[in-house]
Please model this.
Amino acid sequence: MYRYELHLHTAPVSRCAVGTVKETVEFYASMGYDGIFITNHFLDGNIRIDPGVPYKEQLEFYFADYEAAAKEGVRLGIKVFDGVELSYLGTDFLIYGLHKDWYMKHPEIMEMGKREELALLAEHGAYIVHAHPFREAGYIDHIRLYPRSVHAVESTNAARLDSENLMAHLYAEQYGLPELAGSDNHWAGNVKTLAGMECPRPLDSVEDFISAAVNGELRPFIIKLQ
Ligand SMILES: [Zn+2]
Ligand SMILES: [Zn+2]
Model:
């Protein structure tokens, strides 16, 4: 089986991340993963850059961790794919399938409401996953669901409570949405649990990953480390 991490943050781009790019890629290579997706907090989320900086400059900063990770990946023999985690008041979406050049051409997304933005992303080929939909935290006013705006639900998040994951599973099941697993790792190797998806064949691109997800070729896995 070929294993993939779908939900991963690195420092310095994600303000809440502790693991550096190098530590993170080295850790997943040492765990024998075939590939990882770098899904840092986007310009609408917990990114370590002044929001007053011009859009394109912010994007260059945003993709710098992915680009550095891709170089490390070549060195260490692990595939590194690009992704994005969008945020709206504590409601988060993982976006796969759109790349830096697309975001460069679409600064208007920063002005859109999330429903409108997600529709535009989907129209341009994005695969959209509602991350930890039942997460609760002091800074989240209330739980918001977008069942008609997403392709899948992250119903196993290694950083969340079992009760929150169970609610996500029930939600996905009732709405007929596919379920995915990810670690939401912010700490490189300093984690208790990893969750991800595995595939009987190697995935060669983000587009290949999306077709495997759509065709039901992926299965979740959990690794307990501590
Ligand atoms: Zn974070
Ligand atoms: Zn995340």
User: Anything to note?
Assistant: Residues 7, 9, 85, 131, 184 surround zinc ion (ligand 2) (CB under 6 Å).
